[in-house]
């Protein structure tokens, strides 16, 4: 045999592996192995692919086969488990294997130039200096800080503390460093997780501030200790919902495990960093891998525990390309490896809650806040019909904020709408700031003097007078965070006000700087969107005001209530996280609403997720909605809506339907037009996941055969329909 055949996955929409020849060399050169990366010619380009199999046979005639150019021997092959994970995701979401496996790799590993790779490998090879110099430096800085603020416990921490030479800027304060004694509920949860034999999915159901983080960390510590006596160092993967939560997490993890290498994986890393961190995970060096959803596809040879914090969070669902759920893949991966997976939340997704009811997931429960004497905030409703807001704020809320200001405590005002005003209008003629390219309004951004569409790149100067009638008195309608910030400045001229939203944090590092300012107590009133609602452990924050949550109550999206409840519980959970001062005011959450009697708010007032979830699940059973049925959504885009609808209609009738599968009528999407493209959707449902999958598997090749000249995509388990 002179040649062997490499079956290679490439990042291509063609749903197949590609065969290449590889010339066998003398015996000193080992044969290529599955999981290795190879450089191959593809069309006129040279690209990097993953060798999936090595064979002596190809169905293609020999003269049609091209030669693979090189095999990356520097990097150890990706494991079979990893390839199986990618294959599962490819099958389940109905995408080619290469489109799953390749884009998940760091860019510097996917290029045919190896300079960056060589540099990263050299870094990894340097003895003692374990892969991540930047992180190590940060660890030292934190160790030093820990020595100042808290008694140093372990020898490793002491060492880290004395190692410090130069004072380094602290990215984020360290809240704890010494290991606290677990309370009974935490102890039980940690013991269950650490003693798990084989695959077990846990739902860690714990109110905000109940110390879920502590459970993850101590469970990890025990798993590290067990693995230490058995074999290679264990790896733990921790997924968090937002990039801007990673600094706080990193600080906490480093303070707890100063002697371990920690890798970060999220889209905010520079490519060089991304590669180094990815390799540290791939080599098994990084024992803790902390990341956002994309980290679920990391190569982790010794993975022993997966944690998905805030498992209900919609950000775990990728919304373009491969539309995967990182949470669902986490459960699959744990199952594949026979290890525990912990899904943590104060407001679990109804999917996970239903799995607890049916016994598939084990519930671990933390009912109380972990810090002694820190209690859940009191939730109160402000009836906006009686107490009419001015500048977005009712007089009761203004009074409450003033009280906190006087006590030197922080307030958080939550409004999930950025910009100054969501729309601008002319009262004289009825002109309204529609986007010319989308079925959406142009949002007023007063600071930039722009009207801006949040769905396409369209923006324009704020018109001086009405484009249709010339009226010079155009009015902003409604309010976003910028406008509230403006009112707050007028109401509280002496207060230090900080707005945190996607606009105020556009510059790299600015979000962290803003959060740090809050942590350092340099902010009195924080106004923000969902960016501030999640996960942050604000110590001095005692009041949360929710300005305008009602719109979600009557949304046609059946998940809107679930999302609103989770969001409000989350944001409420930012208040009262440390013990109340003896003479202090109890922490509070004020919700401005026109429907103070709404059952969703009643459940919120009682901090009663379970009641809320039970009612929701009953509704879903009756309405035949997930999690009791399974869905897929086909989307089509065209210049004309009719073209998109016709394609979906043709798709619908292209194959006979099995009895368990339902195809609905094609309809325009809720937001029909974006950037001059009209969008339509076709919903596919079944009471059986297996039947749905079998149907999709048979149907998609039929559609690809038709070779539609239209952009279409399929999403399994869609979130927004
Ligand atoms: P969650 O993730 O459940 O919202 P956190 O893990 O952020 O809660 O914990 C909230 C606070 O409680 C943190 O400041 C943490 O240091 C503290 N904490 C956690 N466990 C304990 C414990 N056993 N004793 C004292 N404080 C604790
Ligand atoms: Zn007008
Ligand atoms: Zn637009």
From TrEMBL:
List, separated by semicolons, the cofactors it needs: Zn(2+)
GO-annotated cellular components? primosome complex
UniProt subunit comment: Component of the replication restart primosome.
Q: Does the keyword Ribonucleoprotein apply?
A: no
The Gene Ontology terms for molecular function here are: 3'-5' DNA helicase activity; ATP binding; ATP hydrolysis activity; DNA binding; zinc ion binding
**Keywords assigned by UniProt, alphabetized:** ATP-binding, DNA replication, DNA-binding, Helicase, Hydrolase, Isomerase, Metal-binding, Nucleotide-binding, Primosome, Zinc
PROSITE patterns per UniProt? HELICASE_ATP_BIND_1 (PS51192)
The record's EC number reads 5.6.2.4
What is the stated purpose of this protein?
Answer: Initiates the restart of stalled replication forks, which reloads the replicative helicase on sites other than the origin of replication. Recognizes and binds to abandoned replication forks and remodels them to uncover a helicase loading site. Promotes assembly of the primosome at these replication forks.
Summarize where Zn(2+) 2 binds, as residue positions.
Answer: 435, 438, 453, 456
Q: Which gene encodes it?
A: priA
Q: Where is the Helicase ATP-binding domain?
A: 193-366
Which family would the database say this protein is a member of? Belongs to the helicase family. PriA subfamily.
**Gene Ontology biological-process entries:** DNA recombination; DNA replication initiation; DNA replication, synthesis of primer; double-strand break repair
Q: Which residues does Zn(2+) 1 bind?
A: 426, 429, 466, 469
* SMART domains xref list: DEXDc, HELICc
Cite the HAMAP family for this sequence.
PriA (MF_00983)
Reaction catalysed by this enzyme: Couples ATP hydrolysis with the unwinding of duplex DNA by translocating in the 3'-5' direction; ATP + H2O = ADP + phosphate + H(+)
Q: What is this protein called?
A: Replication restart protein PriA
Q: Name one Pfam family in it.
A: PriA_3primeBD
The note on the cofactor says:
Binds 2 zinc ions per subunit.
């Amino acid at each position: 045999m002179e040649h062997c055949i490499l079956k290679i996955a490439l990042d291509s929409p063609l749903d197949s592996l590609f065969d290449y020849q590889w010339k066998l060399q003398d015996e000193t050169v080992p044969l290529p192995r599955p999981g290795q990366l190879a450089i191959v010619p593809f069309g006129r380009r040279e690209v990097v692919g993953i060798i999936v199999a090595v064979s002596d046979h190809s169905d293609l005639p020999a003269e049609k086969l091209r030669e693979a150019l090189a095999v990356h021997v520097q990097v150890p092959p990706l494991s079979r488990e990893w390839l199986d994970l990618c294959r599962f995701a490819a099958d389940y979401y109905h995408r080619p294997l290469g489109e799953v496996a390749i884009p998940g790799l760091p860019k510097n590993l996917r290029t045919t130039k190896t300079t960056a790779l060589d540099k990263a490998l050299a870094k990894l090879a340097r003895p003692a200096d374990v892969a991540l110099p930047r992180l190590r430096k940060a660890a030292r800085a934190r160790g030093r800080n820990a020595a100042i603020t808290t008694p140093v416990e372990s020898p490793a921490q002491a060492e880290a503390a004395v190692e410090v030479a130069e004072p380094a800027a602290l990215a984020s304060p360290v809240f704890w460093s010494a290991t606290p004694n677990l309370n009974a509920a935490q102890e039980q949860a940690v013991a269950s997780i650490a003693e798990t034999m084989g695959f077990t999915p846990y739902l860690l159901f714990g109110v905000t501030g109940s110390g879920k983080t502590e459970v993850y960390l101590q469970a990890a510590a025990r798993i590290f200790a067990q693995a230490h006596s058995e074999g290679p160092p264990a790896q733990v993967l921790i997924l968090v919902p937002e990039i801007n939560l990673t600094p706080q997490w990193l600080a906490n993890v480093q303070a707890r495990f100063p002697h371990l290498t920690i890798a970060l994986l999220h889209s905010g890393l520079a490519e060089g960093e991304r590669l180094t961190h990815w390799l540290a995970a791939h080599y098994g060096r990084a024992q803790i891998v902390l990341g956002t959803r994309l980290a679920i596809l990391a190569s982790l040879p010794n993975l022993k525990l997966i944690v998905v914090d805030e498992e209900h969070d919609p950000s775990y669902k990728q919304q373009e390309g491969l539309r995967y759920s990182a949470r669902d893949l986490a459960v699959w991966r744990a199952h594949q490896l026979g290890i525990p997976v912990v899904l943590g939340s104060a407001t679990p997704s109804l999917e996970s809650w239903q799995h607890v009811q049916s016994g598939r997931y084990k519930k671990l429960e933390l009912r109380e806040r972990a810090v002694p004497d820190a209690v859940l905030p009191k939730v109160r409703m402000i009836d906006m019909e009686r107490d009419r807001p001015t500048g977005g704020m009712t007089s009761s809320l203004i009074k409450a904020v003033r009280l906190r200001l006087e006590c030197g405590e922080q307030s958080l005002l939550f409004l999930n709408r950025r910009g100054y005003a969501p729309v601008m209008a002319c009262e004289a003629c009825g002109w309204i700031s529609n986007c010319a390219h989308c079925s959406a309004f142009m949002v007023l951004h007063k600071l930039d003097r722009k009207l801006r569409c949040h769905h396409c790149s369209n923006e324009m100067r704020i018109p001086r007078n009405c484009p249709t009638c010339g009226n010079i008195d155009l009015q902003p309608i409604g309010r976003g965070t910028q406008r509230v910030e403006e009112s707050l400045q007028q109401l509280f001229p002496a207060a230090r006000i900080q707005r945190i939203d996607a606009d105020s944090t556009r510059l790299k590092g600015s979000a962290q700087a803003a959060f740090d300012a809050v942590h350092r107590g340099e902010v009195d009133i924080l106004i923000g969107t969902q960016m501030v609602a999640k996960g942050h452990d604000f110590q001095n924050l005692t009041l949360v005001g929710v300005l305008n949550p009602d719109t979600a109550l009557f949304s046609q999206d059946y998940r809107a209530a679930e999302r609103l409840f989770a969001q409000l519980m989350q944001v409420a959970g930012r208040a009262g996280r440390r013990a109340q001062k003896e003479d202090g005011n109890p922490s509070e959450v004020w919700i401005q609403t026109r429907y103070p009697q709404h059952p969703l708010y009643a459940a919120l007032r009682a901090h009663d997720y379970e009641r809320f979830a039970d009612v929701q699940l009953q509704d879903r059973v009756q309405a035949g909605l997930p999690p009791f049925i399974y869905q897929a959504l086909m989307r089509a885009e065209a210049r004309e809506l009719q073209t998109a609808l016709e394609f979906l209609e043709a798709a619908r009738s292209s194959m006979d339907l099995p009895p368990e599968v339902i195809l609905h009528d094609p309809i325009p999407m809720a937001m029909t037009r974006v950037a001059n493209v009209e969008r339509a959707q076709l919903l596919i449902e079944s009471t059986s996941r297996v039947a749905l999958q079998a149907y999709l598997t048979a149907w998609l090749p039929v559609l690809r055969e038709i070779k539609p000249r239209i952009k279409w995509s399929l999403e399994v388990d869609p979130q927004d329909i």
